[in-house]
Design a protein that fits this description.
Order of helices and strands: EHEEHE
Distance between the termini: 10 Å
Number of strands: 4
Number of domains: 1
Shape: globular
CATH architecture: 2-Layer Sandwich
CATH topology: Alpha-Beta Plaits
Largest sheet: 2 strands, antiparallel
Strand order of the largest sheet: 1-4
Radius of gyration: 12 Å
Helix content: 10-25%
Length: 67
């Protein structure tokens, strides 16, 4: 079985810029800029999924990518 890597994905067209995901990000990976969420420190992301759990519009999620 191949190992899986996780990555943070943003669907900008679904993002309303509410800031909930950024507020719950304990690693300070996310920021709201120009009324949309952006990844400002991808290396600090631990892929915990808190942003995904809190987003009311399903605009941000963590997915597995096969290596």
């Amino acid at each position: 079985m191949a190992a899986a890597k996780k990555e943070l994905v943003i669907n900008a067209s679904w993002c309303t810029g509410c800031g909930i995901c950024a507020a719950f990000c304990t690693c300070k990976v996310l920021e709201i800029a120009h009324e949309k969420v952006t990844i400002v420190n991808a290396d600090a992301c631990v892929k915990c999924g808190m942003c995904e759990l809190r987003c009311p519009n399903y605009a941000i999620y963590v997915r597995e990518v096969e290596l």
